[in-house]
Amino acid sequence: MAEKRDYYEVLGVAKTATADEIKSAYRKLAMKYHPDRNPGDKAAEEKFKEAAEAYDVLHDPDKRQRYDQFGHQAFANGQGGGYGPGGMSMDDIFSAFGDLFGGRGGGFGGFEDFFGGGRQQRRPDPNAPQCGDDLTYRLDIEFDEAVFGSRREIDLTLPAACPDCGGTGAVPGSKRVTCRACGGRGVVIAGGGFFQVRQTCPHCGGEGTVVEKPCRRCGGSGQAPTRRKIEVSIPAGVSHGSRIRCSGQGGGGLRGGPNGDLYVQLAVKPSEIFDRDGQNLYVEIPVSPVTAALGGVVTVPTPEGDAQLKIPPGTPNGKVFRLRGKGVPSLRGGMPGDLDARIVLETPGNLDRRQREALESLKLGASNFPESQRFASKAAIFSAHREKMKRK
After folding, report:
1. Of the chain's two ends, which shows fewer C-beta atoms within 10 Å, N or C?
2. Is the CB of residue 187 less than 8 Å from the CB of residue 200?
3. What would the pLDDT profile of 127-148 be if each residue is shown by its tens digit?
């Protein structure tokens, strides 16, 4: 008789393989060589039995330890596993399948567990109340509404319990009957042999029963579109993407079940003057060169009202002044964010002859523009380096 192959070699795994790796390898071989997929193929049947024998030893920690120590001799003469010269019987094989698939004997329910189908669970009572669906509605709001808060009324058409049948889907006085397509099981089975596909019955939706006389208004669904006006309270400080939950304002329940919830997702339009980052606001304030040079007061809009910002003489372009606590209110009742006001010098335009002459008469020199001087100095250094590199 031919010598048995190494069990690790049979499954195609290393001797350090984990239990999950051993199980995965056996699964692939079992699917490949199962007799139902290879009818009449004796070679495939032998490989199937060989893989089952290897798995039965290697998936058991005690047997695996003995096999690693003594090899096939550990189970010679019927010691420990009964794997004598004839190998495993078909009963032994299905016993191994039972361990793998969740129960002795290798029943069909065990196969479902192994291949991801799961055991058939008890179906819910088709006549029991069912909660309505949660729904989401996008609401566009102005930037000011997000900052200050507001109240909005939205007009929606939502699924609600059919008023004619009370959400049962059946004509009053009629009843639900066993689904003929699935025989009341709620599932239909396609294929045969080892590979069978279980699908939710498309006729009854998995409930196992169907309405004897469907309601004409809702067509048996138990729901009918209903127009509804809902008032939404928008708190101050919400941001783009915030969701507001309107409890019990979603899809209608079935057979007396409660309504689902409505989630209003806010889409905040951009502001014409502010940029926002969380609770902080950013605004650019145009300032004349005279005010920047001599100093003065500029008006800065804030959520609390206009603020008067004092600008010191010689304020440069781009200078940022932080107004603490003048940003967006906190949703949780904490301190508001800050507001950063950035000074932007505005070059005078539309000058008449007298204004141009007045500017020219100022006789401003280089010392009046220190930033220009610093830039000119850095540019000169760069130019010198450039010429030096060209000569190399």
Report:
1. C
2. yes
3. 678 788 899 999 999 999 999 9
Could you report the per-residue pLDDT of 355-387, keeping only the tens digit for each? 888 888 888 877 887 877 888 889 889 888 888
Q: Is the pLDDT of residue 310 over 70?
A: yes
| Helix (H) / strand (E) containing 277 | strand 274-277
Out of 75-79, 117-121, 140-144, 322-326, least confident range: 117-121
Buried (b) or exposed (e) across 336-371, using 16+ Cβ within 10 A?
bbbbbbebebeeeeeeeeeeeeeeeeeeeeeeeeee
pLDDT score recorded for residue 99: 47
**Rounded alpha-carbon distances, angstroms, from residue 270 to 53, 142, 151, 274:** 69, 8, 19, 8
With tokens 């065990």, the residue in question is: 110
Q: How many CA atoms lie within 13 A of 101 on its CB side?
A: 22
Per-residue model confidence (pLDDT) at position 153: 95
Could you give the angle at the alpha carbon of 203 between the alpha carbons of 202 and 206, nearest 5°? 65
Which residue type, as a one-letter code, is found at position 38?
Answer: N
Tokens 């309504």 sit on residue: 259
Give the span between the Cα atoms of 334 and 103, in whole angstroms: 59
